[in-house]
Structures are given as structure tokens and as C-alpha cells.
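Exercise (ungraded).
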Amino acid sequence: MSPTSTLTLIAQSTTMCELLEQVDTAALTDSSVLLIGETGVGKELFAEYIHKKSNRDELPFVKVGLASLPAELLESELFGHEKGAYTGAAGEKKGLFELAEQGSIFLDDIDDFPLHLQSKLLRVLESRELMRVGGTVPIPVNVRVICASKIDLKELVDKNQFRSDLYYRINVVPIHIPPLRSRREDIPLLIRHFLQRFIADRTVEVTGEAMQLLQSYDWPGNIRELRNVVQRMAIFANGSITPKNLPSEIHSSSSLDSILKACNRCLVEEKMGFEEIVNCLEKNLVNQALLKSAGNKSQAAKLLDLSLSTFRDKLKKFGIEE
Ligand SMILES: Nc1ncnc2c1ncn2[C@@H]1O[C@H](COP(=O)(O)OP(=O)(O)OP(=O)(O)O)[C@@H](O)[C@H]1O
Ligand SMILES: [Mg+2]
């Protein structure tokens, strides 16, 4: 990364450290990369990181938000147009591919790329030449392509909504960025990072209880949501951040509501059976009670309103060390 870069990518969990190793290796090649992940997981940040780590880092990095570009403008935005190519095309115009020459282009929300233009994009990627709208002379292009998608493009291919040849062309190196809830070890470091960014002039501590709530929340909006929450907390925090400084959705994460959500996720996403979910819930309750009572079984049993013998039976059932 260039010394002037302000780009910081926090990765503490094993999952993320391993992923970064892959990304570092891929960055140095010229292969197309497809970043896949839920909203807010860091796809755009990864795209910038890959560009900065590549040999093209001093050259342009052009971002294209495909979800926000009207389809009728897309062709001339990407590939440019010649003078008089259509009504209103008073002069010639370079497209974003030409502007990214020698550098990288980031095609964000590639799943929104209109089907009727996909063959043109494929031709550009394969032939390394483009034709401006209304043009007759092919223009050579040397651009590294990085794409991002929130959904699995293969599903669109199977539904004939995305060309399979284009899919294979952009999916040379697929990078799945995991949601924050499956790498909770990253949460404390991310919080510290954003706190430092938003309140550089004073130190604010997060109490253990508040951190526990922040770490057990599911973060549906991933790191973007976490950043916004930290920004909000930073405004009101006075020396330390306690549970009462946290937004209500994070408080309720220890309530029945979040337990039901977690069970539902096991059912729908993990395809677990009813018995398995109930067992998992029971085991978690037992473990949590033990944790809260520092391993004291009588106290743990009391917390769950169980008799000591029933509690012991549960420990045996789940093979939890006495
Ligand atoms: N590992 C990380 N370390 C530090 N900041 C991060 C990390 N991942 C994401 N961020 C920050 O979180 C915010 C959201 O990231 P980004 O915009 O890259 O997500 P995205 O996957 O592109 O989201 P969307 O799909 O909604 O466009 C940004 O401010 C980004 O800088
Ligand atoms: Mg994005």
C-alpha cells in the first residue's frame, strides 16, 4: 500500500486473516476478482485494498455503481461515445474503461448489469479492446476488473438472468467476505478503530458489559452499521460507553427476540431440524448460566430456575465438563 494511503482494513479473526492472505496473493496478479458479501461487509474497501496492493496502485481506480446508473446511460458511460453517436452527443467522450486505463475498474453491484449489455462487456474483457458508442475503430484497453455482488451470481446464471460466459470471466478469483456476526472477534478492534477515528481528541472506554452486548448483537448492516453506531455513541459518550449509551436494538439483542431470530436462522439458513435447534438452545442456556455464575452449578441452576439434579442431567446430556 502506498504510504500516503488512509485505507485501513481491520482483520483480527482467523477467518479474516486467512482471507487477507488470499487477497494479498490475488492482488499481485492481474486476474479478475469477484467480491461477494452482504451489505456493509467491506466489498468496496476490499476493492480499493486490492487496487492499492497491486502493481497498478499509482494508476487510476475507477468505481462504477451499477445499481445507481440508469441502464440507458450505461453503455456510453462505460465505453464512451463518438461525436453525434446519438441526439445530444455533441462531442466525443471517453468512457470509464478508458479513464481507468492501466489501472483498475470496480464494477459494484455487477448483478444489476443489464443482460442486453453483458455480451459487450464480455467482448471488451476478452478482446481487451472496446468500441465507443457510434465508433468504428476499436480502442485497446488494459484495465484490471474487480466486481462486487451482494448475491450469488451463480443463482442468476441458473435463472438465465446473467450470462454464464461473463460469469466465468469475472469470477476468476471469488472472494467471499463473511458477515460480521460470523467473525465476532473483529468487533472490539473495529470499535476501537472507529472510536479513534471519531474522537481523536479524548479517550473513551467501552465497559465490559457494553462490549459484551456489542459483541453478541447480530449486525445485519455489518461494518457500516457498526461504524454508524460507534459514531452515534461517540457523540454522547462521556468518558466511557456503558450499556445505556447503546441503541435499543442492541439492548434487545439479549432478549427473547434475538433468541427467536437466531433459532429462525438455524432453521432457514442452516437447515437444522427442530430437535437439533431445541438442543442447541438448551445447551447455550446451560453454558451461559455457567459462565454467569463462574462455574458454580447451584447458582447456574438457580438462574435457569431448575433443580440442581435437573441441571446436572443437562450437563451430562450435553457432555459439558463438570
Ligand atoms: N475490515 C474493515 N476494517 C475497517 N473498516 C471497514 C472494514 N470493512 C468495512 N469497513 C468500513 O465499513 C463501511 C462499509 O464498507 P463498504 O462500503 O466497503 O461495504 P460494502 O460491502 O461495499 O457495502 P454495500 O454492499 O452496502 O455497498 C465503510 O466505511 C468501510 O470503510
Ligand atoms: Mg459497496
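Further reading is listed at the end of the chapter. For now, observe: The first strand starts at residue 33 and ends at 36. Residues 14-178 form a domain with the Rossmann fold fold (CATH 3.40.50.300).
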